[in-house]
Design a protein that fits this description.
This protein is mainly alpha-helical. Helix 1 (about 1-10) crosses helix 2 (about 15-50). About 95% of the residues lie in helices and about 0% in strands. The longest helix has about 40 residues, at about 15-50.
């Protein structure tokens, strides 16, 4: 990963390389957040369903 990053910096420039690096990192975190929100939605639905019974 770091070799590719160094090549990217020398080819397209530092600002673009930083943007790409941050986007890749944020993508992983957004996917984890999306999974957590889905689990929370399921848990809330279960709690609401148990209260009405």
């Amino acid at each position: 990963m770091y070799d590719e990053l160094v090549t990217l910096i020398s080819t397209v420039g530092f600002p673009i390389a930083v943007c790409v690096y941050l986007l890749v990192r944020f993508e992983r975190k957004l996917e984890a957040l999306n999974g957590s929100i889905s689990e929370l939605t399921t848990a809330i639905t279960n709690v609401i369903g148990n209260q009405t019974k």
